[in-house]
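Practice problem: predict the structure.
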Amino acid sequence: MVTRTGTTGLIRIPARLYRIGDIVRSTPFSRQTIHNYTIMGLIREAEWTQGGHRLYDESVFERLSRIMELKKDKSLFEIRRILSKEKGAVRPKRQGASNN
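Answer:
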């Protein structure tokens, strides 16, 4: 969530969330690739819908750009290792998973 200060106080602007279809329309990646990258831990969903669909925040576009750059000369295994060192990519929790 973005917070901005104005003359009337703080305004909280909710972060935009994207479905897989939104990402597919805005990037060269297929729906299956987005799904695979999520399962592999290369990208993470920010939330889930009540219907069980993944929602991604705006940072996914930066992450996918980085993956495209690395794919030029690295394997997905190497990319996962590099990204985990850069930003701590971890396998996402499944919907309904407990925090314990």
